[in-house]
């Protein structure tokens, strides 16, 4: 890393060039990390679930199985046993070496960006890789995006620290790493870049500075990751290249609005169940190391119970693992599953994910959200097809739109989710209904947040606290603050120190402007400057104001903003600044005090908060 830092310094790689270089390094590591995570996860599945329980999870059409399927009969109780042991191993590793690696990794990366100056412990990505691979590989219900996002974010943070970047630059590297991981594992580089900029905030806001570095990192990570895949599936979407649904009639939009309402209700249930389960497990009076095992066991029992209920239909086991195999059927042939099974999978996936991740298991929440939204959408589509077959001809289209709309609402990320689902499915014929449903769920889910570490806007982020101060100060001017009617004692430049001392004795001023015969200000001194002459009375009649003053003084004009004034206060550690009329050089208008500037800032902040609260109340009502 020293050689990279010297390259940046010696060749003056500033701004865009520097970001491209550093982001490419982050993308390279993120791509390799995605490969390792995929290999380790599938290895765990092959030598645990498949080997001992006889269960190989269904896969999406575009996923690459790195091991041959081994035909074995499923042993339900061994499935539960494998999941329990996997949860135990994951919990022991996490809570022994890196407790912050528990749960879904995206929230941890968001928290680091806003509240920890972009810093993450170097061991977190490694621990997250191992424990998430174990959790998902043994059948735990979760997604891949959280671990991969944390892997990329962790390296970005480490690189920023090693390169001695500023806090701001380290935050950008962390976010770029998060986007690179997403872009690689889902083979969606554009979505990864936008996701990194959008997922940090719960309102309609973006971290614009992240976009270009995240795009560069995502492209590199994606290019590295796809090299590990066979050429025939290297560039096809995860759910295959055969999804080509069409938007047929404007009347369908009514059904899609109903879908949006359903997704909002399911989303609220998902978020409440997830954090409610997390709270219950935190309150359990046992060591945290074993809690993921309990959650995994309960999720496994739900899985085998549903398997018995649906006569060994393996599609219902989409409630375990990533669930992408079941989702593949929902987006290609929803009638094969039927409304009851689709609703069951959607509801049960909420519960099994809450148990797996909420108990402290390691995994992401994006993947389960796709399954929940897709199955809910397919169920809604089939229902409308029963009553309006001429209008709703493709219920599978509702599954695709449901995937995007569900996550857009609860993750507060409509733009990146629309791009992500398009990349996952390759289905671009549903852009209009996808935009309608995603924006609708985003608006209606205003108070629902899957990622609790998000902040509403940049104004609320510690990462932009300084920007906010500047914005407020730049909105105020000196002429609005300084008191014009305050009497200022001015000292003629020829006044002796003896007369100055007597003048100070009857004044509360600390700074004294010095003026010439034309009453133009030529300098200034403070009462501290006069004290240097008090111990030598022989100078009292000899020294005059011109000897005491400094003629190289700082001043402000009435039209200057308060940010300019505050910079001048702090640069010379001053408490007052003369206000000079810029149209009449040297004419003193008054004095601006530092405490007046700070008071004006505080008052403006309170006004902004009150205005924001009033706007929010109007929005809610």
Automatic annotation (TrEMBL):
<keyword id="KW-0869">Chloride channel</keyword>
<keyword id="KW-0406">Ion transport</keyword>
<keyword id="KW-0813">Transport</keyword>
<feature type="transmembrane region" description="Helical">
    <location>
        <begin position="428"/>
        <end position="448"/>
    </location>
</feature>
<feature type="domain" description="CBS">
    <location>
        <begin position="549"/>
        <end position="608"/>
    </location>
</feature>
<keyword id="KW-0812">Transmembrane</keyword>
<dbReference type="InterPro" id="IPR000644">
    <property type="entry name" value="CBS_dom"/>
</dbReference>
<keyword id="KW-1133">Transmembrane helix</keyword>
<feature type="domain" description="CBS">
    <location>
        <begin position="484"/>
        <end position="542"/>
    </location>
</feature>
<feature type="transmembrane region" description="Helical">
    <location>
        <begin position="20"/>
        <end position="40"/>
    </location>
</feature>
<feature type="transmembrane region" description="Helical">
    <location>
        <begin position="292"/>
        <end position="310"/>
    </location>
</feature>
<feature type="transmembrane region" description="Helical">
    <location>
        <begin position="330"/>
        <end position="351"/>
    </location>
</feature>
<dbReference type="InterPro" id="IPR046342">
    <property type="entry name" value="CBS_dom_sf"/>
</dbReference>
<keyword id="KW-0868">Chloride</keyword>
<dbReference type="InterPro" id="IPR050368">
    <property type="entry name" value="ClC-type_chloride_channel"/>
</dbReference>
<feature type="transmembrane region" description="Helical">
    <location>
        <begin position="172"/>
        <end position="197"/>
    </location>
</feature>
<feature type="transmembrane region" description="Helical">
    <location>
        <begin position="363"/>
        <end position="388"/>
    </location>
</feature>
<keyword id="KW-0407">Ion channel</keyword>
<keyword id="KW-0472">Membrane</keyword>
<dbReference type="InterPro" id="IPR001807">
    <property type="entry name" value="ClC"/>
</dbReference>
<dbReference type="Pfam" id="PF00654">
    <property type="entry name" value="Voltage_CLC"/>
</dbReference>
<dbReference type="InterPro" id="IPR014743">
    <property type="entry name" value="Cl-channel_core"/>
</dbReference>
<feature type="transmembrane region" description="Helical">
    <location>
        <begin position="253"/>
        <end position="271"/>
    </location>
</feature>
<dbReference type="Pfam" id="PF00571">
    <property type="entry name" value="CBS"/>
</dbReference>
<feature type="transmembrane region" description="Helical">
    <location>
        <begin position="400"/>
        <end position="421"/>
    </location>
</feature>
<keyword id="KW-0129">CBS domain</keyword>
<feature type="transmembrane region" description="Helical">
    <location>
        <begin position="77"/>
        <end position="98"/>
    </location>
</feature>
<protein>
    <submittedName>
        <fullName>Chloride channel protein</fullName>
    </submittedName>
</protein>
């Amino acid at each position: 890393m020293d050689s990279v830092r010297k390259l940046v310094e010696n060749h003056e790689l500033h701004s865009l060039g520097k970001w491209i270089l550093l982001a490419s390094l982050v993308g390279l590591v993120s791509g390799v990390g995605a490969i390792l995570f995929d290999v380790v996860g599938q290895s765990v599945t092959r030598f645990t679930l498949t080997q001992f329980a006889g269960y190989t999870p269904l896969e999406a059409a575009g996923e690459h199985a790195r091991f041959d399927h081994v035909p074995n009969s499923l042993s339900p109780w061994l499935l539960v046993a494998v999941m329990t042991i996997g949860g135990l191993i994951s919990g022991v590793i996490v809570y022994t070496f890196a407790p912050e690696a528990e749960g879904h990794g995206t929230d941890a990366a968001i928290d680091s960006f806003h509240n920890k100056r972009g810093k993450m412990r170097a061991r977190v990505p490694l621990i997250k890789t191992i424990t998430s691979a174990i959790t998902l590989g043994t059948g735990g219900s979760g997604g891949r995006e959280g671990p991969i996002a944390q892997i990329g974010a962790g390296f970005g943070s480490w690189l920023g620290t090693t390169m001695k970047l500023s806090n701001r630059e380290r935050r950008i590297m962390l976010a770029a790493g998060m986007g690179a991981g997403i872009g690689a594992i889902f083979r969606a580089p554009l979505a990864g870049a936008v996701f990194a900029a959008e997922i940090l905030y719960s309102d309609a806001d973006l971290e614009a500075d992240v976009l270009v570095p995240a795009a560069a990192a995502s492209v590199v990570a994606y290019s590295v990751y796809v090299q590990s895949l066979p050429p025939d599936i290297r560039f096809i979407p995860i759910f295959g290249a055969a999804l080509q649904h069409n938007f047929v009639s404007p009347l369908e939009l009514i059904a899609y609005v109903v879908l949006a309402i359903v997704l909002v209700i399911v989303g609220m249930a998902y978020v409440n169940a997830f954090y409610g389960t997390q709270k219950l497990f935190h309150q359990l009076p046992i060591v945290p190391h074993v809690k993921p095992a309990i959650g995994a066991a309960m999720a496994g029992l739900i899985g085998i119970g549903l398997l018995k209920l649906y006569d060994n239909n393996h599609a219902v086991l989409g409630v375990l693992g990533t669930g992408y195999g079941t989702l593949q059927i929902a987006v290609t042939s929803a009638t094969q599953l039927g409304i009851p099974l689709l609703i069951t999978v959607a509801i049960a996936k909420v519960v099994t994910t809450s148990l797996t991740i909420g108990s402290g298991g390691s995994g992401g929440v994006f993947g389960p959200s796709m399954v929940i939204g897709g199955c809910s959408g397919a169920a809604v589509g089939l229902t409308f097809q029963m009553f309006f077959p001429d209008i709703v001809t493709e219920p599978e289209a509702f599954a695709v739109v449901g995937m995007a709309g569900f996550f857009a609402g609860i993750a507060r990320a409509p733009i990146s989710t629309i791009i992500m689902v398009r990349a996952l499915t390759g289905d671009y014929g549903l852009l209009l209904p996808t935009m309608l449903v995603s924006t609708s769920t985003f608006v209606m889910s205003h108070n629902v947040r899957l990622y609790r570490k998000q902040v509403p806007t940049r104004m609320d982020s510690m990462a932009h606290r300084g920007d906010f101060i500047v914005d407020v100060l730049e909105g105020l001017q000196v002429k609005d603050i300084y008191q014009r009617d305050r009497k200022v004692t001015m000292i003629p430049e020829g006044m002796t120190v003896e007369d100055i001392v007597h003048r100070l004795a009857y004044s509360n001023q600390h700074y004294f402007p010095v003026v010439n015969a034309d009453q133009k200000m030529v300098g200034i001194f403070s009462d501290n400057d006069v004290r240097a002459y008090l111990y030598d009375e022989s100078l009292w009649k000899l020294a005059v104001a011109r000897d005491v003053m400094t003629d190289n003084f700082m001043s402000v004009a009435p039209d200057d903003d308060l940010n300019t004034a505050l910079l001048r206060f702090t640069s010379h550690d001053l408490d007052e600044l003369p206000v000079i009329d810029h149209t009449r050089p040297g004419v003193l208008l008054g004095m601006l005090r530092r405490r007046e500037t700070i008071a004006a800032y505080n008052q403006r902040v309170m006004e902004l908060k009150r205005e924001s609260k009033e706007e929010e109340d109007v929005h809610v009502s």
